[in-house]
Amino acid sequence: MKKYLALKASAGSGKTFALTVRYISLLLLGAKPNEILTLTFTNKAANEMSERIYKTLLTLGDDEAYLNAIVEQSNLSKKEILGRKSFLVKSFSNATLSIFTIDKFINKILREFCGYIGISDDFEIKEDDIETLSMKFLESLDSKQFEILIDFSHYEKKKFNSIFDLFKNLLEKNETIDILNIDAKLIDLQKDMVLENAFKIKEAILNCSVASNSAIKAVDFEKFDDLFGRTWLEKDTLADYSYFKKCANETIESYFSTLKEQIAIYYKLRAGYSLSKLFELYLMFKDFKFSFNKNKNYLEFNDISNLVYELLSTKIDKEFLYFRLDSQFSHILMDEFQDTSLLQYKILEPLIKEILSGDATKFKTFFYVGDTKQSIYRFRGGKRELFDYVANTNKLLEVEVLNTNYRSCENIISYVNSLFLKLPNYEYFEQESIAKDGYIEVIEDSAFDEDEKFINVASKIAALLQEGVNSNDIAILTYTNADVLNLYYYLKQKFPSLKISTEMTSKLINQQNVKAIINAIKYIYFKEDIYKENLNALIGKSILNELDLLVSLEEKSIQDLIKEIASNLKIIDENIIKLIEVSSSFNNIVDFVYEIDKLDANMVNSESIGLQILTIFKSKGLEFNTVILLDRIKRKNVDKSSLLFEYDSVELKNIFYKIKGYENYNKEYEKALAKEKALSLEDEINILYVALTRAKNNMIVFKKIKSSVFDILNMSTCKIGTIKESINISKNYDKVEKVIYTPMNLGTQDKQIAKEKELDENHLHAKYFGITTHYCLEMMNEFSLDCLDYSLKLARSRYSNYLNEVDFIDIENRIFLLVQNDAFKNIVKDSEFITEQSLIYKEEIKIIDLLLFKNGTYYIIDYKTTKDRLPEHIAQVSFYKKAIKDIFNTNEVKAYLVYLHSNESFIKEI
């Protein structure tokens, strides 16, 4: 085993495989699980790492790839390794593991040594209430401090919330400067010096006989603020400015040279003053925040890292603390090393250096893995330069490159190689492929500039489904959470029955139906039309539409109010249910309308399967059979921060206060801006790399015609290869023959039928009873009592918040009666069957509960849980019957309505 190793692992190259092999090899070589400090970046990754190691230990010997890699790492024979398998499984499962997120590990340090900085070890971890914290900070200032804040705010023309954002930025960076006491009067004096020299140029131009009107207008200033922003100030000489060229001479050029020197001095004073005043205020805020957090007994994650670093720097003997920690850990494994922040590394550095000290008498190892091309979290502190810095400053460390991609097909890998290998000054190792074929398509889409932005995306989804791609295998990647939500609502309208999941943590109050309820309640309370029109837009009504919101506010809880309004508007869904649950924290409607916008709960998406929509950032570390990648819909937000941090590799070189035009008079600031611009471009390239390496089989890119983010890679329209169909067309059944559909225009039924219509929409219980019954039937692999028992357990875990035990007994009884029904048993016997089968036409999808095929005949089953047997049920199933006849060009189709009643199962052939 190489004791000190860094792996540069490109996308799909087996990073997790390498970590697992390393961990198990360490166990085989005598390391104990609690001695192996394994650090990841998310709880999910930490849990998956533990599970992967455990499952690999359990199945050791079954997978030759793992076994051969462990043989190579441990230098043990297969017989020796397998002989220790039982012992390793037992020791790993009984051990206290040291597999943490970095945040959790740093939190562990603070809790163990928190007494040294005077905080309790039972502190909570939560985010600041910005409004409360900022208000309390203002109240804590004395008159002199408050005057400093007001002066800074006035001088910089910044509102307090902008200043507060700067404080939070500085807390995250945890960098300091030496404060310079610059008197503001010096800046005023310097302004006068600038004007004095500028007036000399003005006088010379006005006295120039050949000066044009444009030249005279260019020196039309009387005050300092009038002077600034003049484009001629940015020139190297006055002769470079076309309007002054005829008047330029040695004297006027000397005036200009002196003016430029005086302006440079002004900028230096101005920037130094602003930065010093900001840090003076920041240090006040930092001290206040520590006291506030201490009294409230909570910390943010940034606070924890800052306090641990302070603990190590000033409050405790560093050797003592690391002796305590070092005695616990002999091996360090770090995942996603490119996302480590500078502060996190500074905290871990002594532990790493101790291991890298090279004591031959002790078995100690250090291993880290990552990919600088996948560094996309610089905005929250990730420092990709650390990867090479650590390798280059530790001679014992070896660096290896993993560049074989086991994820994507050959065409996808070749296409990605062609895009990134030609980029200048970008470290990219050509990736090799294992799997053959694959499909690439780049589409220029003008619809992104139209109101219906996603119409072509919807068409492509319909086409993919018709070409044999399972919707469960499709992921759509976007740039922002807003794009995820907009696309989700659009596709739900286009494909009402298609299951769609969103891997996002958007706030509950941003969900469409929840926003509608919030605006409805605000309209009832404030009587302001803006809330009514917001509501109309959210529920798809026209502007100035009158709404029936005559609800009584007296003696009614917020929960009851939400339920009544949602029922009236017919928008009850899982997120409305969650809103009802969390609204118990509001005492009355006044609390609700004024505090609801601060609600921090996340929205719900109960679909664990189906077509996925997620941001590129959320997709990192994941893979999908088919990826649809969308361009950035809106322009990227401009960086409006007033601070510029310049690093030389990993060392802070400068902190600049941004002032427009400063780059024309300060070369260091100009270089720092250029460096930041280059880093921002690299961020964009890395995001594209992550996005373009998620697909296994098929990748479709939708590109804007103008101002496309893909222009960075010079991408153009193309089609490479052929679509790879999904192996399974059903999420539940692996052994089902593939049904190939031919695209047809089947028309639509006269009356739209949705499953919710079969239930009383105003009756929440009835709705969830029906949904749960359908889910239970959907989860049954076969219609047996054992499968019924299993599917009921799944249904209970998913819907127990909405139904009680009596309901589940009722559902069990209804399905039991169906399973025992002789007519039903005869239909399903010896049939090939698929639950929830999709029919596609006109870019819409209809869902059949159960489609069977037996002896050349197709059988359609549609379940109903309503008491009433309605005419529209017959219309719905008749439509399904016609569709199947047309699609498969056969008259051998039978259709049945199955009514699941509490006392019988009634089957009606249509």
Verbal overview:
- The protein is an alpha/beta fold and 910 residues long.
- Helix content is 47%, strand content 15%.
- A hairpin with a 2-residue loop joins strand 21 (844-854) and strand 22.
Q: Could you state the oligomeric state of the chains shown?
A: single chain
Structural class: alpha/beta
Q: Roughly how many Å apart are the termini?
A: 70 Å
Strand composition percent:
5-15%
- Total of helices: 32
Strand order of the largest sheet: 13-14-12-15-18-11-19
Largest sheet: 7 strands, mixed
Poorly predicted runs: 730-762
Output mean pLDDT.
87
Instruction: Work out the number of β strands.
Output: 24
Helix content: 40-55%
| Radius of gyration using CA atoms only | 33 Å
Shape field: globular
What does the secondary structure layout of this molecule look like, with pairings?
Elements: E1 4-9, H1 15-28, E2 36-40, H2 43-58, H3 64-74, H4 78-83, H5 85-94, E3 99-101, H6 102-113, E4 124-125, H7 130-140, H8 143-156, H9 160-173, H10 184-206, H11 213-218, H12 224-227, H13 250-296, E5 298-299, H14 301-315, H15 318-326, E6 331-334, H16 342-355, E7 365-370, H17 385-392, E8 398-402, E9 404-409, H18 410-420, E10 432-435, E11 439-444, H19 455-466, E12 474-478, H20 481-494, E13 500-502, H21 512-526, H22 529-538, H23 558-569, H24 574-582, H25 589-595, E14 611-615, H26 616-619, E15 624-630, E16 643-648, E17 651-657, H27 667-692, E18 695-703, E19 718-720, H28 764-778, H29 785-799, H30 805-819, H31 822-828, E20 832-841, E21 844-854, E22 857-864, H32 871-888, E23 893-900, E24 905-909
Parallel strand pairs: 1-7, 1-8, 2-3, 2-6, 4-5, 6-7, 9-10, 11-18, 12-14, 12-15, 13-14, 15-18, 22-23
Antiparallel strand pairs: 11-19, 16-17, 20-21, 21-22, 23-24
Helix pairs in contact: 1-2, 1-3, 6-14, 8-13, 9-13, 10-13, 14-16, 21-22, 21-23, 23-24, 28-29, 29-30
